[in-house]
Amino acid sequence: MIRVTELRKSFGSVRALDGVGFHAERGEVLGLLGPNGAGKSTALAICTGLIVPDSGSVQLGDAGAPRDPAARRLIGLAPQQIALYEDLTARENLVFLAKIHGVHDPVRRADELLDMVGLLPRARDRVRTYSGGMQRRLNLAAAIVHDPPVIMLDEPTAGVDPQSRSGILELVQRLAAEGRAVIYTTHYMEEAQRLCSRVAIVDHGRVLATGSVPELIAAHGGESVVTVDTPSGARITRTREPLREIERALAEGGATAVRIDQPDLETVFLALTGRRLRD
Amino acid sequence: MRASLVLALKDLRLLSRDRAAAFFTFVFPLAIALFFGYVFSGTTAEPMRVAAFVESASPAADTLVRALSEDGAFVLNRVESREDGERLVRSGTAAALVVVPASYAEGVDGMLTGAGPHLGLVVDPSRRAEGSMLVGKVHEVGFRTVFSSMADPAQFGRALDRMEASLKASDMSASDQFAIRAALGRARSMAAQSSKDAGAARASGASGASGMSGWKPVSVDVTELAMRPGIPANSFAISFTQGVAWALFGAVLAFGSGIAEERQRGTLVRLRVSPMSPNDILMGKALACFLTCMATEWLLVFFGIAFFHVAVSSWVAMAVVVAVTAFGFSGLMMLLAAGFRTEGGTQGAGRAVLLVLAMVGGGTVPLVFMPPFLRAASNVSPFKWAVMAAEGATWRNWGPDELWMPLVVLAAIGAVGLTAGTALVRRSI
Ligand SMILES: Nc1ncnc2c1ncn2[C@@H]1O[C@H](COP(=O)(O)OP(=O)(O)OP(=O)(O)O)[C@@H](O)[C@H]1O
Ligand SMILES: [Mg+2]
Fold first, then answer.
1. Considering CB atoms only, which of B14, B267, B276 is closest to A83?
2. Residue nearest (by alpha carbon) to ligand 1 atom 24
3. A202 pairs with which residues across the strands?
4. Ligand 1 pocket, A242 CB below 6 A?
5. A with B: how many residue pairs have Cβ under 8 Å apart?
6. Interface ipTM > 0.90
């Protein structure tokens, strides 16, 4: 659905993107996981036609590049910064956006979305009076007024309470399940792990690895740590086959407790960059 | 285009929710118009100010002017020319101008021969109540002075002397002259006898007139100043065009930072991801400014008409003026947006620049009262041309041959602003 190849972009001496490439298909959530300044937002800005890359290309299905308004209609963007008119009500915001997108019945569409993000009871309140989590949910709803097949969400859970967060994650899963391609940037690896069918790990403007979470862990996570407690003390083993190690310990007898520390995306990131995701 | 209109309507709704901006766009100009209107009209509890112009000095004229100024009902301001007096009336400093014509002395002298004295009164029609009260006063005072001069034997004698002299100079037959001279002689002795009764009549003022069967000693000729085109009906006619400058100031300022606000709030990203082109977005901003300029100027006009006797010379002219002005100031707004790329920049430095332009352009000192150098300097201010066009469509009563000039300037500002400004702003979108 969307294919991004070899994007390069510099801002003066800062090289924001240095050959980023990924693709996302209908029905999947592609996570862009990376630390601050990795280039995630810049990549999305290029994907939505907001900025022009120094080189590389973005293709939206058969529709072409996002600089073309016809192709741009296929994309919905929820920017990292909350982008709403604070002195309009939630409904007015959505109706306005629906109208400029040429949506058929803007008011009905607005109410449908408000219901979807659980804001219908507050539809007539000005956005200024909303909590951070409510504004985030509306920011997401605003991205999809025109029901685009490609949805780009730039850290849609930043500064959100756990309840709102799980609501947002469920909504994203539903959007993908209904057949849309979702690109989801985050630096929360738990989110990527729970939500994304595939994850691209981004750092310093480059994609270091792409794959499903198990694939990434298998390729870059290294060994699991198996800890076996015995009366004579704890025995720690590093292995790629933790189950076999446990079987052996049980066969030997005398084990009072076993623990497996499996590698996760954090370990993958550490292995790939030599740094932790969140320093 | 439809999307631009949607964007413009959204901006108007936001403006209506921003109390400060809405105040400066719609209420403040009215307040300014009312403030200056009252300041210049002097319609307070003070005594009425009246200007007096004596065309040629004579004892009779002096007596009249003295009597007028001694009357407690008004403050008399003697002026050197009719134009000076009219200027005072026009500016609202004086409610009326009393003109004592050169023929006044002769009129007093010629009362017996029937012509009678004559006075001119130039009034501000919007102050009709004061004007008609003044007409009564002038009659009264004029009558009193004329009557007192008749009652003064010495002055009456001088009048008879002059009549005799003029008789000599005439080409009347000798026998006619003889007969008139005899009549004048009888009149002299009659006057001496009646001086006591006249003194009593003078003491009771105008009421004495009733004793003289239908005799009307002074005729007062009233001219309404604004009946002539090109003169403001009252100070509000001027102050409401000043209000136009402030209305436009508010509108331009409210939308000049519109793009910057969208950028700072992040909503510009949404607009740009939408199918709207940068031109559509800028057109929406210009349209919002255009509609606001129209609304606020019409509001002023209707308010002025409804409550302050402001007159529109022609509705067609007014409609054209308001539309072209709104176009011009949408262009100015775009230039402002191009010059100051941040909300702070527009509201700080941008506001200062606009403020100077509005003040120089007739927002504070009305164009009509500007000294020549300031009036010349004001040409650089777009506000001047808007005020001028508004004046042209109201009290100046201009036709197309005079209105074209400010309209062309405003249209040019609009065209340049919208093309150059848009080109500059588009780069930053
Ligand atoms: N408009 C810009 N001008 C200059 N530098 C920029 C601009 N936009 C981004 N950068 C730089 O490009 C790099 C990548 O920024 P980007 O915002 O894409 O990172 P990110 O992955 O989204 O980070 P975060 O997780 O903090 O949102 C950073 O070094 C940033 O400073
Ligand atoms: Mg970012």
1. B267
2. A36
3. A207
4. no
5. 62
6. no
Q: Using H for helix, E for strand and C for coil, what is the string for chain B?
A: CHHHHHHHHHHHHHHHHCHHHHHHHHHHHHHHHHHHHHHHHCCCCCCEEEEEEECCCCHHHHHHHHHHHHCCCEEEEEECCHHHHHHHHHCCCCCEEEEECCCHHHHHHCCCCCCCCEEEEEECHHHHHHHHHHHHHHHHHHHHHHHHHHHCHHHHHHHHHHHHHHHHHCCCCHHHHHHHHHHHHHHHHHHHHHHHHHHHHHHCHHHHHHHCCCCCCCEEEEEEHHHCCCCCCCHHHHHHHHHHHHHHHHHHHHHHCHHHHHHHHCHHHHHHHCCCCHHHHHHHHHHHHHHHHHHHHHHHHHHHHHHHCCCCCCHHHHHHHHHHHHHHHHHHHHHHHHHCCCHHHHHHHHHHHHHHHHHHHHHCCCHHHCCHHHHHHHHHCHHHHHHHHHHHHCCCCCCHHHHHHHHHHHHHHHHHHHHHHHHHHHHHC
Contact by Cβ (8 Å): B209, B331: no
Measure the CA–CA gap between A86 and A88, rounded to whole angstroms. Answer: 6
A41 lines ligand 1 (CB under 6 A): yes
| Residues belonging to chain A | 279
What pTM value is reported for the model? 0.72
Query: For chain A, how big is the Rg over CA atoms in Å?
Result: 22
Cβ–Cβ contact A104 with B under 8 A? no
Compute the nearest-CA separation of A129 from chain B (Å). 14
With cut-offs at 50, 70 and 90, classify the pLDDT of residue B236.
confident
- Which of A81, A86, A101 lies closest to B275 in CB terms? A101
Find out whether the beta carbon of A42 lies less than 6 Å from any atom of ligand 1: yes
Name chain A contacts of B6, Cβ cutoff 8 Å: 96, 99-100
Query: Taking the CB of residue A240, how many other CB atoms lie within 10 A of it?
Result: 12
On whether any CB of chain B is under 8 Å from the CB of A92, the answer is: yes
pLDDT tens-digit profile of B360-386?
888 887 777 777 788 888 889 999 999
Interface membership of A26 toward B (CB under 8 Å): no
Q: Please give the structure tokens belonging to residue B395.
A: 């009290």
Task: Give A77's contacts in chain B (Cβ within 8 Å).
Answer: 269-270, 273
CB contact under 8 A, A83 and B17: no
pLDDT 10s digits, A226-274: 888 888 888 888 888 888 888 888 888 878 888 888 888 888 888 888 8
Contact B273 A100 (CB under 8 A): no
Give SS3 for A68: coil
> What's the pLDDT tens digit per position in A138-193?
999 999 999 999 999 999 998 888 888 888 999 999 999 999 999 999 988 889 98
Q: Is A79 in the pocket of ligand 1 (CB under 6 A)?
A: no
Cβ(A11) to ligand 1 under 6 A? yes
CATH architecture for the domain at B48-224: 3-Layer(aba) Sandwich (3.40)
A256 three-state secondary structure: coil
Domain ranges for chain B, please list them.
48-224, 230-428
Name the closest residue on chain B to residue A69, using Cα atoms: B275
